[in-house]
Amino acid sequence: MSETVLVTGGTGYVAGWCITELLKRGYDVRTTVRSAKREQVVTGAVASEVNPAGRLTFATADLTADTGWDEAMHGVTYVLHVASPLGVQNDSAADLITPARDGSLRVLRAAAKASVKRVVMTSAANAASPSSYATEGVTDETLWTDPADPTLIPYRRSKTLAERAAWDFIENNDTGDMELTTVLPGAVFGPILTTSNIGSVGIIARMLKGEMAGIPRIGLEIVDVRDLVDVHLRAMTSPAAAGQRFLATGEFMWMADMAQALHDGLGARGSRVSTRHIPDFAVRLAARFRDPSLREITPALGRRNRHSTEKARTLLGWQPRPARQSVLDCANSLIAHNAV
């Protein structure tokens, strides 16, 4: 009989690709949705890549409530906890931290009760980054972001505290033989399965639509969603991965270089992509007087902090693809799905 893997948050961008790849590799998959009405959305997305009939099942469970998690874990061998609480503009720290931290603990408690072999939890590279906004530097999994740093945006603080709470739970509770591994991705791009939830690739959609009049001096460590799923699955089964954190950040790329790659690589389809640079001072002025949402990116202007993925490469044999390929594959997928 095939092993069953539970993927949390089945309607999510990363979760959809996790489900797809698990099915391709012969696993049975159960995934959580907050409402049974969302099941068809997941099935339709996955069916564009693989036939899910008979091997994909659903459980109704929400990170903000205890109900449904015991049933979701029944008969499960592994858990990929990739779900994140939905946020809205101007989230406060509590709006994000409480559901992220408490939701992770709900998943871990139910998994331990069901004698799950291993939980692989999706954290973020922002949970292993220096608190100071130096312009250069390379860090690895031994570093923890300081959640007490008052300059942290709520999202970054929530991801750090949620992961920290997960490790504390494993250390301080009797979880039997259950193991925990965490994966810390950078900016996730790549092809989409559906337009119902395009996740982080929305920034590329905005570029293609011509909605970005200029490009700020922001750099991203780009990981393809397919490579991110691959490292999750390697972390799920590798004996060497038990009790480890793995950065999965991919190649560093300035947004200006992303825009140029889209403009040059797509021909006429990339004609609306702006390659005009926006000076740092203009971004800061706009953040202060016109668009408060820009305040979260101003500390990252000109910053080229990077993360080492040597651990994932060495222990798991992980090999991510070039960032430019992910950006172009993402754009072509958005165009093919009529999302731009």
From TrEMBL:
Pfam families: Epimerase. Keywords: Oxidoreductase. It comes from the Bacteria. Gene3D superfamilies: NAD(P)-binding Rossmann-like Domain. GO terms for molecular function: oxidoreductase activity, acting on the CH-OH group of donors, NAD or NADP as acceptor. Belongs to the NAD(P)-dependent epimerase/dehydratase family. Dihydroflavonol-4-reductase subfamily. Transmembrane segments: none annotated. The keyword Oxidoreductase applies. This is NAD-dependent epimerase/dehydratase family protein. InterPro entries: Epimerase_deHydtase, NAD(P)-bd_dom_sf, NAD(P)_dehydrat-like. Residues 5-242 form the NAD-dependent epimerase/dehydratase domain.
